[in-house]
């Protein structure tokens, strides 16, 4: 799919990284915050009633709120190329950002602006890499049940395509409190006991038992849906809400007070399709991307 580039910087030693999306011709976007502990930057410009029409970059980062500084690297990259919102005194690159908390994974460091700049230099059109790369490097899942082991998360990708060429493509950084389930509702990654069996976070809570102090392992799932169909910001806001159903299909429990879950929905094309159909496509793409993020998951 044309209209954007994607690049990643992975710091395996520190256990963190950054993923960037470049929309050098501008794109329309909106978002929906699903969790209660988000770490975000420059979201207000994506609200339907705000006047700036386009974004030119998007950053997903590790490092919690410290990782939001990586957006400066993308702004620098775009500014050097005179890409951004036009003003009488030069362009202003509009680059929203969101971050996961991965400081407890290996080293308590965040990706830097320079690393985000390097991710821009490495960016390629329509790239769909997945695994423990970029912002998904230090992601983990299954952190709710006491005396259990977590499993690795990561960055996953998937797309849903119609016969007429309309595409909904999803990227998901999965760093959830809960478990990840497949389409048959079986757990495929999450909290595990020492014997290898899944603890089942949802069943554990429904049994009346208390979770551990989850802020010790803070979390968050970040999702980006990009489509080649044309929509206004208000429509993208509603599509983002519909697409959030894909997160709830794949993760249990979901949208907790310990997760900063957020979903971006971005239009980078001119094809025509209904808002309802796109929301349905987006939800399925998100569901598949989350499962893809943990396809190589291991106990950590």
TrEMBL record:
<keyword id="KW-0031">Aminopeptidase</keyword>
<keyword id="KW-0645">Protease</keyword>
<dbReference type="InterPro" id="IPR016117">
    <property type="entry name" value="ArgJ-like_dom_sf"/>
</dbReference>
<comment type="similarity">
    <text>Belongs to the peptidase S58 family.</text>
</comment>
<dbReference type="Pfam" id="PF03576">
    <property type="entry name" value="Peptidase_S58"/>
</dbReference>
<keyword id="KW-0378">Hydrolase</keyword>
<dbReference type="InterPro" id="IPR005321">
    <property type="entry name" value="Peptidase_S58_DmpA"/>
</dbReference>
<dbReference type="GO" id="GO:0004177">
    <property type="term" value="F:aminopeptidase activity"/>
</dbReference>
<protein>
    <submittedName>
        <fullName>Putative aminopeptidase</fullName>
    </submittedName>
</protein>
């Amino acid at each position: 799919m044309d209209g954007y580039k994607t690049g990643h910087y992975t710091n395996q030693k520190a256990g963190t990284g950054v993923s960037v999306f470049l929309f050098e011709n501008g794109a329309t976007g909106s978002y929906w915050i699903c969790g209660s502990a988000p770490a975000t930057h420059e979201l207000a410009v994506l609200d339907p009633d705000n006047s700036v029409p386009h974004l030119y970059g998007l950053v997903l980062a590790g490092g919690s709120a410290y990782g939001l500084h990586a957006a400066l690297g993308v702004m620098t990259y775009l500014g050097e190329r005179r890409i951004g919102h036009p003003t009488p005194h030069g362009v202003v690159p509009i680059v929203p950002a969101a971050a996961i908390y991965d400081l407890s994974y290996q080293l308590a460091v965040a990706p830097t602006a320079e690393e985000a700049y390097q991710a821009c230099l490495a960016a390629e059109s329509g790239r769909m890499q997945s695994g423990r790369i970029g912002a998904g490097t230090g992601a983990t899942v299954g952190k709710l049940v006491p005396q259990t082991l977590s499993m690795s998360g990561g960055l996953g990708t998937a797309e849903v395509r119609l016969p007429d060429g309309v595409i909904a493509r999803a990227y998901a950084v999965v760093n959830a409190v809960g478990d990840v389930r497949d389409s048959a509702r079986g757990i495929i990654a999450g909290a595990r006991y020492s014997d290898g069996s899944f603890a089942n976070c949802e069943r554990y809570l429904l049994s009346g038992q208390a979770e551990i102090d989850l802020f010790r392992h803070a979390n968050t799932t970040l999702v980006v849906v990009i489509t080649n169909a044309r929509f206004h910001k208000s429509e993208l806001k509603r599509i983002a809400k519909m697409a959030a159903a894909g997160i709830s299909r794949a993760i249990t429990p979901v949208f907790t007070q310990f997760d900063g879950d957020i979903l971006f929905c971005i239009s980078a094309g001119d094809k025509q399709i209904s808002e309802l159909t796109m929301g349905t496509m987006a939800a399925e793409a998100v569901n598949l991307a989350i499962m893809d993020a943990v396809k190589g998951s291991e106990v950590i």
